[in-house]
Amino acid sequence: MDGLGDAAKEYIAGSAAGVAQVVVGHPFDTVKVKLQAHNTTAHGKVYKNAFHCTSRILVEEGIRGLYKGASSSFIGIALESSLFFGTYAQAKQLLQGKSEDFVSEYTGGMIQVTFDDVISRNLQCRMQVQGKDVMYATRYSSPLDCAVKTLQREGVRGIFRGGLATLYREAIGNAVFFCTYEYSRYWMHNYIDSPQFSSNSGLVVAKDIGIGIMSGGLSGMAYFTLQFWTATLPLDVAKTIIQTDHNPQSSRNPFRVLNMVYRRAGLAGCYAGLGPTLARAFPANAAAIVAWEYSAKILGIRRE
């Protein structure tokens, strides 16, 4: 890298990755949030499964329903992803050694959490659960309206709702994501690099896109596996419930919320949204990594 210029380029490339991730992954996320918010209440399940939820959204709201809350995501996740990838790249430059990938990604994940809640996730979740569902009447006309009403009712603390649950969820998971990305990318390059690829520009592009898709997709699946086998996905359920609960007196302790969910809906309730999370993992993260790598290449950043 050449100092400040390349550092700024890393943050720009990170923003491109965030936009790509929203375009591909937001519909899956909308279904996941609705399942988490509506299938964990005392009133029983609103949706039979992810397919039922998706079909209800399409019938009642059209394709736009799947992208509800996306405007705040495009802005928030572009900034979040800029910090996420930019901090990772900068920390990786500074930290040399066996643990550099884990430590630099852990650093990026910690910084990401603040913007994750303040800019996008909180408003996004509140927008996603509204609509023609039985339990939630339309409350917000836009992300800005959502932010203003949240501040009026709950103050600044309302904007930060779910921050603790997000912190637990993201810190280690993001480290696993980038470790998987780095090592899978390294081994795939070693395996398929050959004079045939290096002498044909078309094959080079195909190779780079293919490696980006596979390394990004595998990283997303690794993150999902961590979510499934640990308490990470249940904490995501708790985060959604905390952020979409309109009662300011409700508990913000994710473990208390999970205990409540378990009593109401059992273990299945604690893993609500599992299907869309799995379906989203590969395509959304593959799109993000390809966008990040090619934006970096266009901007002239050299990847080792």
UniProtKB/TrEMBL annotation:
It is found in: Mitochondrion inner membrane. One of its GO terms (cellular component) is mitochondrial inner membrane. It comes from Triticum turgidum subsp. durum. Pfam families: Mito_carr. It is a multi-pass membrane protein. Its main location: mitochondrion. Keywords: Membrane, Mitochondrion, Mitochondrion inner membrane, Repeat, Transmembrane, Transmembrane helix, Transport. GO terms for biological process: mitochondrial L-ornithine transmembrane transport. The keyword Transmembrane applies. Belongs to the mitochondrial carrier (TC 2.A.29) family. This is Mitochondrial carrier protein. Solcar repeats lie at residues 5-94, 100-187, 211-298. One of its GO terms (molecular function) is L-ornithine transmembrane transporter activity. The keyword Mitochondrion applies. It comes from the Eukaryota.
